[in-house]
Amino acid sequence: MSQIILTTGRGTKLRQNDSSLMTLNITPKDPKEKSQLNQVMMILEDILIPINHVGIASTDGIKVTIPPENAYMVLNTSETTICVETGEIDYTQHSILYDPYLYEHEDHVDYDSAEFIKTYDIPAGYTDVLPKWYSIKFSYPEFNLIFVRPGLGISLQSHAKREEYWEIAAGEPIVISGSKVSYNNPQGTKFYIPLGNLHTIINPSKDVWVILKETYKGNFDEKDIVRVFNPNHYN
């Protein structure tokens, strides 16, 4: 039996079940904290959902069945440490679609925007640049262009003061919008992000940057971001 320990704010890798039907048994490390499991979320193929909405209560936790060929990822958005047991299935042989901790042990240096502009074809007219070590955003009067580094994604987040309109300008990212998870979204795919909806964009490519064109209505304020899962700020 394999066991994964997830402290608060940590998640598993997003994998695809390449074998037979498997069951995850998710339990709190401290049995007294069983009620905290109601706050744990997971990706199960094309949905993002609390585990208690998709699993079956067991004596010590919640059991979730993963069908063959389905993607799965557990996100510990609770306030306690949890254990994820995978039974007899060797989950390490399953395909990895996204590893949120790919660069956890490397130095995280924000991109030099001047050097980035020399390397990539950035349209003229931007008024501001927000460089991070995993992405870089160019702001224009009517939209933003967000470049997402290969293998990484932005935080799973929501906003109370703005709704967003996304269009994939390059790459084939994984996108979460509300409870919907979609894969391999080609250039031109559009998404509407209503107020309060959880959303993120993940770049599963090993070498191609994702470019997201983002427009919005409402108050664009970085302080309006509520991050539910933020793997780029490691604990």
UniProtKB/TrEMBL annotation:
Boundaries of every Mannose-6-phosphate isomerase type II C-terminal domain copy: 144-228
Q: Which Pfam families match?
A: MannoseP_isomer (PF01050)
Which InterPro entries does the entry link to? Man6P_isomerase-2_C, RmlC-like_jellyroll, RmlC_Cupin_sf
Its domain of life reads Archaea
Signal peptide interval: none
Q: What is this protein called?
A: Mannose-6-phosphate isomerase type II C-terminal domain-containing protein
